């Protein structure tokens, strides 16, 4: 995240991960990764202050849970200095057969990993 110290980036990512887990009761080990944007969709964002959060998860959460994720992330990141105007969250849902974590295999489908929420 351009323009931020390693310590600051770690704190942002930790708060993002904890906020995401808190809102949707995710598994320990799920993590949040972030990057810095410029101008998007007409929203002015500072290149050194903006945060984009991409969430990749299994299908099945309600609109209410997704809205809670957005709200909780904004609250948790505000606690470490991220202005809500500079927060962009994208929530991607998919199925177990959309994931491969290593070796070109679909571990959820092949039974190597338990499918979250099942």
From TrEMBL:
InterPro entries: Tauto_MSAD, Tautomerase/MIF_sf. Transmembrane segments: none annotated. It holds the Pfam family Tautomerase_2. This is Tautomerase family protein.
């Amino acid at each position: 995240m351009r323009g931020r110290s390693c310590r600051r980036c770690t704190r942002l990512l930790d708060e993002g991960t904890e906020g995401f887990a808190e809102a949707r009761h995710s598994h320990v080990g799920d993590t949040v990764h972030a990057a810095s944007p410029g101008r998007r969709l007409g929203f002015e964002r500072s290149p050194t202050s903006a945060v984009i959060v991409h969430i990749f998860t299994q299908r099945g959460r309600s609109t209410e849970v997704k809205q809670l994720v957005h709200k909780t992330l904004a609250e948790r990141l505000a606690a470490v200095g991220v202005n809500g105007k500079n927060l962009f969250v994208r929530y991607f849902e998919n199925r177990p057969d959309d994931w491969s974590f290593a070796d070109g295999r679909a571990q959820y489908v092949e039974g190597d990993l338990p499918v979250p929420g099942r």
